[in-house]
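STRUCTURE:
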């Protein structure tokens, strides 16, 4: 969500085959509100709605990333260069779309076009509050193990999306997509596997875009899933989930 038939050579074959299962020409998308990952550098200016920044022991949760001069980092750079060598224009376009994805792009690719803010105002409001809690949590996670992005380690890495010299570990998009998958899976449990697959796709395209190491994305999944669990502990969130399910019921029945 096609790779135009390019067959990568060893050792990148297995990684790229996984990517090719979901690559597609870029679908058009409406203009989106700022995503959680795009707003994670804004200062905290309000109390938390559901999950406080200190709710997780992030240092215990996150292993240290590979050292800059380690064999592991060199292998991750080689992986990025291999993917970059076979990245197509269509795939680069999808990378840019994923870079700017919002909740409704993410969810509609699993549920269908009815999943939009106009149809689901309560859902839009809840996930705005989720985004406001996400920012401090994401900044706190990135502060645990500061790491620069791959292009600053090796000039041969040329991303196909815009990027800044901000923390790479964990990936904010990976945190965001895992959190969305966890919460949407609680609202629409029959589509849990679809949301998890869509979060996998976000991570694959962030790797293909060249702005994250694979370990950044793995760490982001760990953090995002942990944050989702914290949200789901809240009685308020569990109550809201019932309302959001009811809001979506007429569309689900169709």
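SEQUENCE:
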């Amino acid at each position: 969500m096609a790779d135009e038939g390019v067959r990568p050579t060893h050792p990148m074959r297995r990684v790229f085959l996984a990517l090719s299962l979901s690559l597609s020409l870029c679908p058009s998308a409406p203009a989106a509100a700022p995503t959680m990952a795009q707003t994670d550098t804004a200062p905290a200016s309000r109390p938390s709605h559901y999950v406080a920044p200190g709710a997780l022991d992030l240092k215990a949760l996150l292993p240290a990333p590979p050292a800059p001069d380690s064999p592991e980092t060199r292998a991750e750079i080689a992986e990025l260069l291999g993917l970059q060598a076979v990245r197509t224009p269509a795939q680069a376009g999808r990378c840019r779309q994923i870079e700017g994805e919002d909740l409704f792009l993410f969810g509609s690719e699993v549920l269908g076009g009815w999943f939009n803010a106009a149809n689901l105002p309560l859902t839009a409001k809840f996930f705005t509050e989720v985004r406001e809690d996400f920012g401090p949590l994401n900044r706190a996670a990135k502060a645990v193990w500061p790491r620069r992005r791959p292009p600053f380690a090796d000039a041969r890495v040329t991303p196909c999306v815009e990027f800044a010299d901000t923390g790479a570990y964990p990936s904010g998009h990976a945190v965001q997509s895992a959190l969305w998958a966890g919460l949407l899976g609680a609202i629409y449990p029959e589509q849990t596997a679809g949301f998890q697959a869509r979060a996998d796709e976000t991570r694959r395209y962030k790797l293909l875009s060249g702005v994250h190491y694979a370990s950044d994305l793995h760490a982001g999944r760990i953090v995002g899933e942990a944050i989702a669990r914290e949200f789901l502990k809240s009685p308020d969130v569990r109550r809201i989930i019932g309302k959001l399910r009811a809001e979506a019921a007429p569309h689900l029945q169709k």
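REMARK: Residues 1-36, 38-44 have pLDDT under 50 and may be disordered.
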